[in-house]
Amino acid sequence: MEPPMTLRLFALAASLLAAPLTASAQSDYPNRPINIIVNITPGSGTDLIARTVADAMKDTLKQTIVVENRPGAGGSIGAAVVANSAPDGYRLLVTSSAIAALPAIQPTLSYDTENDLTPIIPLAALPAVVMVSPSKGIRTLNELIEKARKAPGEVMFGSSGVASASHLEVERLRAAAKIKLTHVPYRGAPEAIADTAGGRVDFVIAPLVSGRSFMDAKQLIAIASTSSKRSSLIPDVPTIAESGLNMRLGAWVGLLGPKGMPPELVQKIHDAAAKALESPEVKDRFNKMAAELMPMSSAEFRKLIVDEIKSNKELLAEAIPADKKPN
């Protein structure tokens, strides 16, 4: 039975009134402070990228941006906060490419990565370096691989958590080199790097910026880089490709929002971030971190995430047995 005419007219009037209000809210955006959630620990490469871009976006958007770390459960805690937020652009997420690995290891996530988050823009590609303690006596990546082949499962690596970007980099290395390694996950990259420097684990793959202080203090040495070419910051360190391994390389850091964000609002935030990324201050900081720009539309970024979710499920199916995956 059709609703009475008065109800239909009321619904039509309400929808007509709501449209200008929504458009007005978007045109006024932002009219209050923005909260950016980083789902990784402070001091990580992702955290440094987030704070660098947020500083520049404050000038672009003429509004305060508060960066807040919400680590835990592989990054799913912070991601869930944003996934369940209002789609008004006032709570956003900066995360690493590990966001695309969580569905492979946490089938009971409280949100759907593909459908409950809105990809906005990738902020940077963040090449990492393979780091070891000088006390280990390993000077090249091939020496590390050979050690692992001679003692399957005895070589231990640290990471910033199960399915973190640093974990994924090692799993790709493991698959390409056909070796067996033992994974020691930590709460974040700083802890994994510190234990590698102390010799408690054999190696770690992490952003250069995160381990640079240990390298400068001669507590860690870099034996390979995940970048496509040698970095000017560490020109004597070869790339993994130079060691003869054929593997997909590199992690990224991106900006996402909740589901249901209007396309016009997504584009406005995308453009503000893109403008911030072109600022001399951001470029200078990125150069010091060996971070690289990744120009993409929001649609291209979404496709990247969807494709990586699929490939990570295949990669981690072998690395993490079903009975070892967290609930």
Automatic annotation (TrEMBL):
Fetch the CDD domains from UniProt.
PBP2_Bug27 (cd13578)
In the record, which residues are listed under signal peptide?
A: 1-25
Q: Which InterPro entries match?
A: BUG, Bug_dom1
Keyword Calcium set for record: no
* This protein's record includes keyword Calcium: no
UniProt keywords, alphabetically: Signal
Read off the PANTHER family from this record.
BLR1237 PROTEIN, TRICARBOXYLATE-BINDING PROTEIN
The text of the family note is: Belongs to the UPF0065 (bug) family.
Protein name per the record = ABC transporter substrate-binding protein
